[in-house]
Write a structure and sequence with these properties.
The protein is α/β, with parallel strands linked by helices and about 400 residues long. The protein has 14 helices and 13 strands. It binds pyridoxal-5'-phosphate.
């Protein structure tokens, strides 16, 4: 009998999503304002802009920060040593300099206490990244930089839906961004959102977005076909049948380049339809995260992340750190036998991927290195049900 495999990530699309995306191909730009209004209300921000990816959103924020900075020698961007390597691309594209800070082994996110020592007159921005859907502390960074010329920008790419004290992450600092790429908490195949807490620089942002090219109608139609493929690939039955093909589309190599273009009407129409069930999709990630925390916490040799009490974490992936790498391998195998695929992304911290960010002697960011080398990511998405969590629990009990 065919053993069903659970996809590692993905928005469970429904038939009406395909229908709305198809109609969206022929809609006018008004669909953007409609989607913007829905998201402004959802995120409770004054403004936001859509573009083709989280990377482009980040890139445009740097362009604006460079224009509004007080001094031209403000070129340094502080970010965690363990995060998505692609975050270095827009930094490089804008001629800025990445400055790494170690992560906190208990939160798996940027170690806020180590940021102060990296701040100097060249600092342009600090970027707390809400990795895996885990909220990174932002308030204390705002306090730390209060009265200075330093900007805080939040990377909420993989944490759409996570809130702290009922406020969405990505909306505490003046600037933030989300990704709507495939595999993210909500996906319109690809996409990015720049989030502006207040309206001060909206026009400047809009100018940069206006300068981006519009995808050719044929490219938009191909995008629609890809979306149909993705909508099949995120369901267990079709994922199982298609997995040899799907694996070819998974990101396995480092990106060395990013394209920037405008968001499409097809994606906005799709987004509007998905947002009708956003609370359900998010709630399931939050509940699955809580259930997985119960499965993994207080087990010898497993470290689970500390989540602030007032936070609801919409996990993109549920991260655990396993000290014994042989046990990690056994757990992965046990889970795979049950059709549950796990991931190890990213297996190296930034300073090991890019040696120019490393320094001779002792590892400058040992917590980031340990996390990268011992991490295991468990899928928490909306299609994971109680029965899958129970299967995961049995596999964990067989190994630990
Ligand atoms: C933490 C983080 N930031 C930014 C990005 C970039 O987003 P996008 O893939 O939409 O360019 C990613 C994508 O993997 C990410 O995980």
């Amino acid at each position: 009998m065919l053993k069903l495999k659970m996809p590692t990530a993905g928005t469970p699309y429904i038939f009406s999503d395909i229908l709305h995306a198809k109609i969206g191909l022929f809609q006018s730009n008004r669909v953007f304002s409609k989607f913007r209004d829905i998201l402004k209300e959802y995120l409770n921000v004054e403004n936001l802009l859509f573009i083709n990816s989280g990377t482009t959103a980040n890139y445009i924020i740097y362009k604006v920060l460079k224009q509004i900075r007080k001094r031209v020698d403000q070129v340094e961007i502080i970010l965690p040593a363990y995060t998505a390597p692609s975050l270095l691309l827009p930094i490089e594209a804008e001629g800025l300099t990445p400055v790494l800070v170690d992560i906190d082994p208990s939160t798996f996110n940027l170690d806020i206490t180590k940021v102060a020592e990296k701040l100097n007159s060249k600092t342009l921005a600090v970027m707390p990244v809400h990795m895996f859907g885990l909220p990174c502390e932002v308030e204390s960074l705002l306090k730390l930089t209060d009265g200075s010329d330093i900007f805080i920008l939040e990377d909420g790419a993989s944490a759409l839906g996570t809130t702290v004290n009922k406020q969405h992450i990505g909306t505490t600092a003046p600037f933030g961004f989300y990704s709507l790429n495939r595999g993210k908490n909500v996906s319109t195949l690809a996409g990015g959102i720049v989030v502006l807490k207040n309206d001060d620089y909206s026009e400047l942002f809009q100018q940069y977005v206006n300068e981006l090219t519009t995808l050719h109608p044929l490219a938009q139609f191909i995008m629609f076909l890809k979306f149909i493929g993705l909508s099949l690939a995120v369901r267990p039955f079709t994922y199982t049948l298609m997995s040899p093909i799907v694996s070819k589309f998974k990101y396995t190599t480092l990106h060395s380049h990013f394209d920037s273009f405008k968001y499409t009407t097809m994606q906005a129409a799709l987004g509007i339809n998905i947002w009708k069930r956003i609370n359900d999709l998010t709630e399931r990630r939050i509940e699955n995260g809580k259930a997985l925390l119960n499965v993994f916490k207080n087990r010898n040799g497993i470290i689970t992340p500390v989540i602030p009490e007032d936070a609801e974490a919409a996990f993109n992936q549920f991260p655990i750190v396993i000290d014994d790498l042989k046990k990690r391998k056994r757990l992965q195998k046990e889970l795979l036998n049950q059709g549950i695929e796990t991931t190890l992304m990213y297996e190296k911290p930034l300073h090991h991927i890019f040696p120019e960010l490393n320094s001779p002697g002792d590892d400058p960011f040992p917590n980031a290195t340990y996390l990268a080398e011992h991490l295991l990511l468990i899928p928490p998405h909306a299609q994971i049900r109680c029965s899958t969590i129970n299967t995961i629990k049995e596999a964990v009990e067989a190994v630990f």
